[in-house]
Amino acid sequence: MRIFLSLLKKEAIEGARTKKMISTFILFLFIGLISPLTAKLTPMILQSIATGNIDINVAPPSEIDSWTQFFKNISQIGMFGLAIILSTQMANEFQKGTLINLLSKGLPRYQVVLSKIFYNFILWFIAYFCSFILTYFYTRYFFGISFLIRNILMAALLPFVFGLFLISLETLAGVISGNVIGTLILTTAGIVIQLILSIRDEIVKYMPIALIGKPVNLIKGIGYDDYYVPIITGSILLVLCIVISIAVINKKQIS
To answer: How many CA atoms lie within 13 A of 14 on its CB side?
Structure first.
């Protein structure tokens, strides 16, 4: 446990030194702020650009518009940014040779993988939580909160679980490829395959990608039963990615 905590501390120091930690927080705080503001200001902007005989009728913005913007931004800007920011973590260990120094001291390889994943999980949780809280309070300020808190929290859980899956997938990609480009290519391939398969409704309901489809429906109390399976599937694949990552790094020749 002492070694594991030391590795976590190393990851935190490295994240602060390379500005990855602050970049992650800035990105998700921006999403948390811009989502309710976009919902609030979009009708005003559309009406202001109407010219001549063009009449733009826009419904007044509402609470659900704010949450729709939030989940849209998280699933697009947020996930893309998270993948880019974390793509160098595993690759740098191989390319800079820092793993050699650690492993030469008898450090178990699996602890390297677990410490990176656990650190990224913590970083993701804090960044996402801050983003969610910011959106919640600004949404409450602009529009009020009329939906059940339970529904809002359940909807927020879906992208969070997908983010955990994305982190584990990217870690596996980094262990396999050993470089940044390979990490991004393999991670993108994993997501693209899901997007292609998700064209068929009977398949997408089993896949993690469904978690970032329309979580806003849960806020309305619609489709609770539709998300139990992708949550389970995402959790299983998450564990599988971690297990395979450990198996690969144990057999990988590091020099």
So the answer is: 18
- Predicted TM-score (pTM) of this structure: 0.92
Per-residue pLDDT reduced to its tens digit, 46-91: 767 766 566 666 678 889 999 999 999 999 999 999 999 999 888 8
* Signed CA dihedral, 40, 160, 13, 250: sign only: negative
How many domains in the chain? Answer: 1
Residues of the chain with pLDDT below 50 are: none
Q: How far is CA 153 from the centre of its chain?
A: 16
Distance CA 190, CA 83 (A): 12
Distance CA 169, CA 163 (A): 10
Return the amino acid letter for 248: V
Q: Which domain holds residue 200?
A: 2-251
